[in-house]
Amino acid sequence: MKTKRLAWLLAVVLMMTGILTSCGNANSSKGAGTGSESKATAASGEGSDSRENSTESVAGKAAEQPSEAENAASDSSAGVSWEDMADIQVVCIVNGTIPSGLSAVEAEINKITENEINTHVNLNLFETGAYAQQMNLMMSSNEAVDLMVTLPGGPCSFTTMASQSQLMDITDLAAEYAPGVLKEQEAVLRSTTINGKLYGIPANKAFVTAVNIYMRTDVLEDLGLLEKAQNMQSFSEYEEILETVKNSDKWGYLAGIVAQGSYSEIVNVANSLLIKDKFSDCAYYDNLGDNMSIVGVYADDETSTVFNFFGSDEYRTLCDIAKEWYEKGYIYRDSATTQEMAPSLIKSDVAFSFLSQTEIGSENAVSINCGTPITTVQVVKLPIATSSVTKFVWAIPNTAKEPEAAMAFYNMAYADPRIANLLAWGIEGVDYEIKENGTAGFIDGNTSPAYQTGDTCWPNKLMITPWENDEPTLRERQREARANADYSRYLGFSCDTSGISTELGSVSGVIEEFKKQLNAGVAPAGTLDAFIEKLEASGVNVIVDEYQKQLNAWLENN
To answer: Residue 269: what pLDDT?
Structure first.
């Protein structure tokens, strides 16, 4: 069906020599077979050899990211040329309900893609809660899914799908149709490369996150606490603010702090925070891409010893703080059971503050979500690690019928601002408008447009126009933060958990039983000890040992 420009391909292969092997991951399971290889084979054997011999490390400071003008992905057509119109199925999540304007946006996208890459795009959006089930149904029935995004956890996480051989090796496809993407994303591709083969590309963003305390500005101003909050440098000072709010005649009805996350996280946020009283003394551990945060390695541990986080002194400290704050009346009383997230509770005038791990530059977005101005205080900045990079990964499943067209469209979604903004905000002049300062925003009189999905998980957040109330230069600031970020030395490690699936299932059930009440501070005395005992009986030490074995082997080869 498809013909290739071999001369162009040869140039791409030569340009890409050495880029991909720095992404080696020696200890994850093998992914799916490479059904696309016969269609996208390198024109020269030397390119493959060079990739296998490259072992450049990405630990420490990352190489400076190219500017938008220098981004080689700007040629979004990627030189494609096939005779028949390709028809692809693209699957993604959406927060909230499916937008009624989806078909109109899809039509606008196809005006571009049909003309420029001879591809018709079908957008399949599913609500977050239904995504895993819908993907399972589509793939189990061998229904075509040509391009999809993976989720931070569960059966549709990148780690799970890769370990179960559900994703296609896209090494050659990406080199052919998205060479600029590979160049720009080189530093983080280790996280999605298994045994030297690329199985997905992380949704591009700053990747630089911090643990922040978010507080209602109106409450702080009314109580004369704004300056104190802006300058606070310890949890003791934060507790003083919580106490003042609690004892206030005007604001005492507010819960001082609410949970952020599905496991009732009050202070146990980020799945990596190690709390000390002074913010400057707070540290972090690397959870090695484990979405359940069972295991970890201390950032400053030269021996790279894997430990059971729930059995650590640090987790006990987090539980003790939550218990103390609950007994003092600072914590929302329903934190262990509510399904509402912190921004929703603040917007409903139920709460004053919360802790959360968020991306650099998202401060204004938090205020929008909370429906009121929010004062942000940073506790600790975190390095770029596998768990932050692989939250949302774009991949081509083995059920794909048009992998080449899928990769060509992915490249356009990544590099072409027309496609990027259509996917995020909808149709300009219909769903949004460009404000005088260059940001995107609601059209006057229409704050509920027919289409809007946000910029969180599409291929390239940094290509999407910032939303109103964000600073116009937000994307430049995020690129700068990315360029100056620290990288975890374990970036790229991914454990093949197929051999410990029984233990993981058992431990997961124990976590479900205990974690919420411990995190929310409502657990009776002795609960943590019972939790640890039951974890050990369920095989947590087997999990730790397997991670240690695979990490040791990975470190020897990286």
So the answer is: 76
Cβ neighbour number for residue 54 with a 10 Å cutoff: 16
Q: Are 379 and 270 in contact (CB under 8 A)?
A: no
Between 557 and 114, name the one with better pLDDT.
Answer: 114
Q: What are 2's two structure tokens? A: 């498809």
Q: What's the DSSP call for residue 374?
A: E
Which tokens sit at 125? 């959006």
* pLDDT of 45 strictly over 80: no
Alpha helices, DSSP H, located in 117-234: 128-140, 158-163, 171-177, 179-184, 217-222, 226-231
- What are the C-alpha distances in Å from 324 to residues 142, 268, 492? 52, 14, 38
Among residues 16, 57, 169, 69, which one has the least CA distance to residue 463?
69
Contacts of 182 (CB under 8 A, 6+ apart): 16, 19, 20, 174, 175, 189, 201
- E-state strands within 48-160: 60-61, 86-94, 119-127, 147-149
- Sign of the torsion formed by the C-alpha atoms of 541, 544, 550 and 556: negative
Residue with tokens 């003092």: 328
What lies within 8 Å, CB to CB, of 274 at 6+ separation is 282, 283, 284, 285, 314
Round the average pLDDT of the chain to a whole number and report it.
85
Residue 75 pLDDT: 54
Going along 221-280, which residue ranges are E strands?
255-257, 273-274
What is the CA 85 to chain-centroid distance, rounded? 33
What percent of the chain shows pLDDT beyond 90? 61
Q: In angstroms, rounded to a whole number, what is the distance separating the alpha carbons of residues 79 and 256?
A: 56
How far, rounded to the nearest angstrom, does the alpha carbon of residue 34 sit from its chain's CA centroid? Answer: 26
Q: Which residues pair with 292 in a beta bridge?
A: none
- The DSSP-derived string for 299-344 is TT-TT---EEGGGSHHHHHHHHHHHHHHHTT-B-TTTTT----HHH
Contacting residues for 149 by C-beta, under 8 A, at least 6 apart: 91, 92, 93, 203, 392, 393, 394, 395, 457
Residues 553, 219: Cα–Cα separation, whole Å: 52
Q: What angle do CA 425, 270, 322 make, to 5 degrees?
A: 125
